[in-house]
Structures are given as C-alpha cells and as structure tokens.
Design brief:
With about 325 residues, the chain is of the alpha+beta class. It has three domains: about 5-120, no CATH class; about 125-250, Jelly Rolls; about 260-330, Phage tail protein beta-alpha-beta fold (3-Layer(bab) Sandwich), CATH 3.55.50.30. Helices cover about 30% and strands about 30% of the residues. The strands form five sheets. It has a seven-stranded mixed β-sheet, with no helix packed on it. It has a seven-stranded antiparallel β-sheet with strand order 4-5-8-11-12-15-16, with no helix packed on it. A hairpin with a 5-residue loop joins β4 and β5 (about 140-145).
C-alpha cells in the first residue's frame, strides 16, 4: 500500500464504492461487523484499496478523515452533523461529490475547495435572510449571519471554526484544558484572547474582524506579521498581510443585533448589503447609487427598509414581484 496507489488513476466504480463506504460509516452506527465488512471490501480488489487510500487522502485534506487502526474512517467535524441529519437525496449528492474528488485526487479537491459551492456541506449554515445562534461544545456562543457556513473542528488540542462563507460572531467561554480558540478563513486565522468578536469574509481577498471585548490576534495565511486587534477596533486581513487596525463602527457588526446601520452610505452600497438579507433580486439604478443613506434598518423586515428609503430619498421602489425589486430615481418610468 505505497504512495503510488494514491497518485495513479482510480477506477470510477471503485471510487464510487469508497465514497459509499465513507457516507455509510458516518450515517450508520459503527460496530465490529461494519469494520470487518469494510476490511473485506478493501482486500477484495487492489482497485478497492487504491480507492480507499485516495479517499483517506482527499478527506484528510478536507480535514475530516480519521482511520482508527487502519480499519475504518469517519467523516469528522467538517460536514458530519449536516450529513447525519440529511435525507437520502443529500446523501446521494454527497456520495457523488466524494466519488468525483476520489477520482480527481488532491488537485480536484483544491479546485473544489476554492469554489463557492463548497459551503453546502458545512456543519452549520444559514439561508438568505436567516441568522442563527447556537452554543458550542465548550459553552462558547456562536451566531451566523445570513448566507453563512461554518465547520466546527474541536480537538483535544484546539477549538477551531472554519468559516467557509459569510460571517460569524463569537463569544468565547473559558476552557478547562486551555485550548486556543481560532476562527479560520481563506485569508488566515483569528486567535481569540478572551473575547467577543465577529469575522466576515468580504471577498476572495480579505476577511474583516471586529472586536468588541478582549482582543484577537490576526495571523495571515501566508505568514505575514501577526496583528493584535483590541476591543473597539477592527482590521482587514489578507492572506499575505493584515491592514492597520481602525476604530470599529456600528455598521461593521450591526447584524449581530439584527440591524443594518448606515451613516452617509452610498445607496448602491447600502442596497448591495441589504440584498444579502433578502431572497431574489434587489437592484439599484446607477443614477441614484451615490445618494447618501443614514439610519438603522431592521433586518427582519427588508420591506420596511425599502419603504424607509422611499420615504427619505428621491427614489421609487419598483416591485414587480416579492423577488424582483428595482430602486430608481423619481423621474424613471
């Protein structure tokens, strides 16, 4: 079972069966009989063993595979909770995705991981307009913003959240084992130093971290200098470096209170942010995109936010349907 088995071509049928085993182990109670059946399958054909080794390699890169005594694997923190609760259709989709990654190998995984679709398999995720709060295994509290996805990867050595999309708010709890608490994004990690803070993936190049209590140390993914962000401050982090800290404004993490704050914000930017909390299409005519917006808008009722815009600005709200809204100037037809 050398390294060559993970670098050569993998039979598609064997890859499919290996993926089925991974999903079965996660979704069904584990026992000795299951482990023995897996061992027999692996020994039945060299292609089976090669596919299983590739499966462990791919899942290891995702950060989810364990192989107790070499006899079995379990999908770990990434996607495990979501998969356990999933229906048959979702499990079939998971199997198909895993099989494709097993055939493609590490290069295929890297392409998949960089894509925006990877968030579907996260442990916890929210839909458009949904915000969700829950308690973590260590009694820390986590809140997810709209359209967000996070994996919970707690081990004996550390407490780590992998933010795949959107934003997360954290209030850390003391840990008897002294494990560090980290939020990881594509740009790097934010190490909590006894704190209450939020992290948001802004785009493909930056993460915004806002600290309300305690402090956070930003560690860029490509080895840039760590930056300390203290209470009342915020900073953007790229994969190569973190920008200088700045005072944290209300707008930076107002979503944690269910409010979208604006202070002379260009209407175009405001509409883009509001659209994150509203299903469908919400557009702003470039002719009015620079109008300044100020106020506090409740995210639980985006219709009211639109009415407030029409009452305070020289704009008209064209609502063809609940899911198709255009904001234009008063002179527009």
């Amino acid at each position: 079972m050398g390294a060559s088995s993970t670098s050569s071509a993998i039979d598609a049928r064997a890859a499919r069966e290996a993926a089925e085993w991974l999903v079965r182990i996660q979704c069904e109670p584990q026992d000795a009989g299951q482990a023995q059946a897996l061992a027999r399958w692996r020994a039945a054909d060299p292609q089976h063993e090669a596919a299983w080794q590739r499966a462990e390699l791919v899942m290891g890169r995702v950060g989810t595979a364990t192989a107790p005594s070499g006899n079995g694997a379990a999908l770990g923190p990434l996607g495990a909770a979501a998969l356990r609760d999933a229906g048959s259709a979702r499990r079939r989709a998971t199997t198909q995705l895993l099989a494709a990654l097993i055939v493609a190998g590490p290069a295929g995984y890297l392409a998949w991981r960089a894509g925006p679709w990877s968030a579907w398999s996260a442990d916890v995720r929210t839909a458009t307009g949904e915000r969700r709060e829950l308690q973590l295994p260590d009694d820390s509290r986590m809140q997810l913003d709209t359209g967000s996805a996070v994996d919970i990867a707690f081990t004996a050595m550390e407490r780590r959240l992998l933010l795949r999309a959107g934003a997360v708010w954290i209030q850390t709890a003391a840990d008897a084992a002294g494990r560090p608490f980290l939020v990881q994004t594509p740009q790097g990690t934010a190490l909590a130093l006894g704190t209450r803070y939020a992290a948001r993936i802004l785009d493909d190049e930056s993460t915004l971290v806002v600290v309300r209590e305690g402090a956070v140390q930003l560690r860029p993914a490509r080895g840039g200098e760590p930056v300390r962000v203290s209470a009342g401050q915020q900073a953007r982090m790229g994969s190569g470096a973190a920008e200088p800290v700045q005072p944290a404004g209300l707008a930076s993490d107002g979503w944690t209170q269910g409010v979208l704050y604006a202070e002379k914000t260009p209407l175009g930017e405001f509409v883009a942010e509001l659209s994150r909390y509203r299903p469908g299409i919400l557009r702003c005519d470039p002719a009015v995109a620079r109008l300044p917006v100020s106020g506090a808008f409740q995210l639980r009722d985006t219709d009211q936010a639109l009415l407030a815009l029409a009452a305070s600005l020289p704009v008209r709200i064209h609502q063809r349907t609940r899911y198709w809204v255009q904001i234009s100037g008063l002179a527009a037809p």
